[in-house]
Every structure is written in structure tokens, then in C-alpha cells.
Automatic annotation (TrEMBL):
This is Type IV pilin N-term methylation site GFxxxE. The lineage of its organism: Bacteria, Bacillati, Bacillota, Clostridia, Lachnospirales. The keyword Transmembrane helix applies. Keywords: Membrane, Transmembrane, Transmembrane helix. The chain crosses the membrane at residues 12-34.
Amino acid sequence: MKKLCREKNGFTLAELLIVVAIIAVLASISIPIFSRVLRKARLAANQANARAAYAAAMVWYMENSNTTEQVNKDAGTFDASTGVFTPGVISTTNPNAPRFEDANINIDGWTVDTPSRPAYDKRRAGDVVYKKWDIYWSSSFDGTIDAYVASE
């Protein structure tokens, strides 16, 4: 007796095209979501590092605010990888370094789109995780921080 149907050995072109189309749709949906979550994670890391820099700077301020010398009372650098605050040392001399000041000094108010550089540069707070933070004290050295300047 003859076989009425042949044995199937593989997938048809239509089946393969449908699978590829489904994978393409899933990828087009997941990539923007992944990018958004990654930017939020970078922002959270920057906020945590800036808070740690603030805490380390304030500890140094509390220990040294009553000295009469003007040494190291203008700025200092916090290294997020080691957790060490070094007074009087600036990690960057780049005038275009990310600078969070004035309205952006409130760390909790930062968003992934908070500009961290001059207006002509498109870098935002959620684009890069900054490892070093320069802390600039107010000129009166009253425990107020004027700016955070970050470097990669």
C-alpha cells in the first residue's frame, strides 16, 4: 500500500518566518524597557555615590570645622570605589566635567534626565556611573556644599 502522506523532516518557510517575526516583536519591545531600567540603575548608583560623598565630606567637616587654618576648606574628592574622602584634592580639572549645583544640589530630586553638564553637552545623570565626586564647600565653610563635580 502506498503512503498517503510523506514524513515531515523540517520546518516550512512560513513557520520559520512566523518565528522570526515573533522574536523581532519581542526584541523591539524589550530593548527600550531594558535601556530605561539601565538608565534608572545608573541614576540610582550616582545618587548613592553622591550621598556617600556628602556623608564622607560632612564627617570630615565635623572633625575639622573648628580649626583656624584655611587648609583644605575649599574642596575635596570622594572616591566611590574605595569610599575615601580626600580633602584639598580635586580629581578633575576639566571645565566640562559633570557639575551638579544650584537647583540640582538636592540629590533626591535628580532624574535620569537631569542635565549634568553644560547645555551644549547631551550627557544626563542616568547615562554614566561616576566614580569620583569633587565636593566644593561654600566660601564661608559653614557645612554647606555648593556643588558636586563628577568624573568617570
